[in-house]
């Protein structure tokens, strides 16, 4: 009972207190004012990274460094602290004069703000001083012209790059071209890629100079790194071209080097040389093999190759042919090579045993598939080939003596003009045929292209009345696409198939496969979806990577309905056109979807199928 009385007393006291509180005027009470501490004063030039404490309120003074569109304080130990507004509205509240000064290298400024870390998607952390109002940014009258470190590429090393990373430098030297990109090569072999931020705005003349090995150049820019690649990043106005390389990259000493005596250490990019040896013909390419098994490809750039005579091309494609090549050591598509320019740069010696003839012994000039080899296949050469049709994956081929497969084809518009009889014979296993056309690489395959029915001379038809294999039911070649932006949507119909896409349709010539194509990548969530109304047995398509500057692997995923049935993970250079065949074997209506799950884009073309 006493406990109950005590509880009632406490309750009464609380009610009285609450009543008393409600009777007091709100103006009689004020919240306490919390004074913000004075900011810690820091002089950037004499400070080091130890002064940077996340969350600390500071007042930092110094002369700013400008890199791209960002401004920084640079501490005495090289640490950079980015000057950043707390919101876009705060930045916009700056006057035009303040914005101009904030973008001026060497401008004296005092910024009051808070140290904060900003984490990028790749995990990199940027140190920042974040200000909250325009009054927090006060400019002085002193503008110090930043000192630019001057370096000679032939004397510099990786240490010079590391010591000056993030800083503006003046780098002079001669260009080295690797993977079709301009570099400086340091004394210790370190490669520094040249990245021009406004490359598209450069004149064609300057672009050509920047793509010329041996070109003297001086670049004022900033050492930086992009996905593991060391770079000097600059604007076109920071590039000064000097002396151009002499024709062919310089004079030779006249000394003839024997490939059998050379090693990898003798290969120096851009060196003019004269090398003698026997041709090793491999994967439809010609090589010298050095003493230590280093393979050096013998080649001409496409503009020069077009002017090389067919006789020279045939000899160059002959395994064991003795040749002396005058040219320049280059790197092409990841391979070591020696580049020549004209017929006179090649001196052929003794042919291999057996005569080394690549032209079959036919008096009428017709190549017989049954006796031909890969050495007879010279891209661009006009030929007449006789043999029997070999069918595979809905395509027609000649099969050479050494099992080289040469696809017989015409562009879609030309093929459609063939008579039904010609199409039937063309799709018949064992059909005798003579084709007049030109050798042409097509979708990663060797091929002979013809234009019209008169280019095909049919002979004996197999006694079984046909012997056809699965015939190609249709093909999307993307020759008449609506050219639009990066996320163009559209639909196409071919035979019994409907194709929908979200893709880039405006392609640079060097990324096209057969004139048109669809480019997709994960960043735009692109796709190609095909509904096959009468089912599908096999699917075939050509593909290649685009924009080789993005170095990571490309990954293609193929879905049947919602089920993933194929993953293609590749890192081939964009110069290689690849082909993929997928067995699906669905008799009813089915939907197939292509996706690219990487940021790096992939181009698709010549999507064909059998039913």
What report would you give on this structure?
This protein is mainly beta and 611 residues long. Helices cover 11% and strands 41% of the residues. It is flat, with a radius of gyration of 35 Å. The termini are far apart.
The secondary-structure class comes to: mainly beta
User: Based on DSSP secondary structure assignment, what is the total number of beta strands?
Assistant: 43
Strand content: 35-45%
How would you describe the shape?
A: flat
- The count of helical stretches stands at 9
Enumerate the spans where pLDDT stays under 50 for 5 or more consecutive residues. Answer: 1-8, 10-26, 247-253, 355-364, 465-469
pLDDT averaged over residues: 83
Distance between the termini: 95 Å
Rg from C-alpha positions?
35 Å
Summarize the biggest pleated sheet: 8 strands, mixed
**What percent of the residues sit in helical stretches (DSSP H or I)?**
10-25%
